[in-house]
Amino acid sequence: MEDTGTTEATNQSPPPVTFDSFHFEAELMDGLRAMNFEKPTPIQQQAIPIIMKNRDMIACAQTGTGKTAAYLLPVINKLIQSPGDFIHTLIIVPTRELAIQIDEALQGFAYFAPVSHIAIYGGTGGISFEQEKKALTQGANIIIATPGRLIAHFNMGYVQIGKLQHLILDEADRMLDMGFSDDISKITSYLPKNHQTLLFSATMPPKIRELAKKTLHDPEQINISLSKPAAGVMQAAYVVYDTQKIGLLKSLLQDRKIASILIFSSTKDKVKELEKELQRSKINIAAIHSDLEQDQRNDVLRQFKNKSLQVLVATDILSRGIDIDSIGLVINYDVPGDAEDYIHRVGRTARAETTGVALTFVNPRDQQKFKRIEDLIGYEIKKLALPPQLGAGPEYAPEKNKEQGRGHFTKRKKR
Ligand code: AMP
Predict the structure, then answer these.
(1) Looking at the structure, do residues 70 and 217 belong to the same domain, yes or no?
(2) What does the alpha-carbon distance between residue 77 and residue 85 come to, in Å, rounded to a whole number?
(3) Is 84 found in the same domain as 209?
(4) 3-class SS at 243?
(5) Is the pTM of this model over 0.70?
(6) Ligand 1 pocket: which residues have CB below 6 Å?
(7) Residue 199 belongs to a domain with what CATH number?
């Protein structure tokens, strides 16, 4: 592996097991209690002391590990200790959904603390732009932003960022995948020299290590086991012909009393089709995809979060970063485009050590792709028998179906 100049975090003393051991301020502890957080997750145990020491850090951690609180808690704690009307922390994220989600988490943790914050993302109108401008000139403490929109503000010259203490790059791998590399460089060129930088990424490909080299100073590195879905997820698959998929889906949904079910499909056209088909079967379902306006997307997500909507069908835009509590069942209607996506999708269930079920429909064309996922996570996923009324499915023989699967694995479709 390439030398990145990072040092591994050392565990000289046993990791703390309660939030008390971080000696957070009372207002933050009140927020944690209100959120029912009792015990730090492994990433929080490792990252919080490093962040509190003001070291730069690179953390390899997926969504679902508690990474958001790992960086928000020490930042809020510092703000309680030295409050003021200045931009204290900048969090850069790949998507609007993630920006909104972090903003909401922040609202919970900082409920009792004197912390102002705003999520800044594209796709909204002039009124939002004016509000964002106000926040950026008058010094909202924590700014959570997608790159393009933030650059638009920087280009206007009014952003007061001279007192910045922390830069956080969240889901950095996703940002590079989405082509934000130059934008990140541009943003960092606007920032003052002496701030702490924290980089979070679900994967550590060489381009992330390059970014780390460019943006971090002598970072500590932590690694929260990747490439495996959380232990609480029960994973299984159905080996099916395409023609059997819709019947299988309907029979699964009709049998279940689960409050929140998330279905992923590969393209927005398929997502729209599924939405129509399932609505005809009187299933309480809505869809989310890139053709919806931002307000509509937020609305659907809100309904799903507050459980007035039972089933949500989505393209991959939802699979990363979006934090919806207690999804009982995730269904991959198609095998995801790459193995990391599978882990992210399955990560929607069994959040923070609860349990959930993830089912994947595997057609003959996708068998090789699915085998690659099994190889990556290091074990075979149980194959379930189809309901008898659907007839027999194909044999699971990834080797035989190799030719068909080739070339589809790493290619990302526009979603
Ligand atoms: P994240 O990986 O940041 O998206 O967090 C995943 C989920 O775990 C979110 O719903 C958090 O609210 C929840 N969570 C994070 N840390 C804790 C904790 N220490 N105790 C309980 N829930 C947590």
Answers:
(1) yes
(2) 16
(3) yes
(4) helix
(5) no
(6) 37, 39-41, 44, 63-69, 323, 325, 351-352
(7) 3.40.50.300
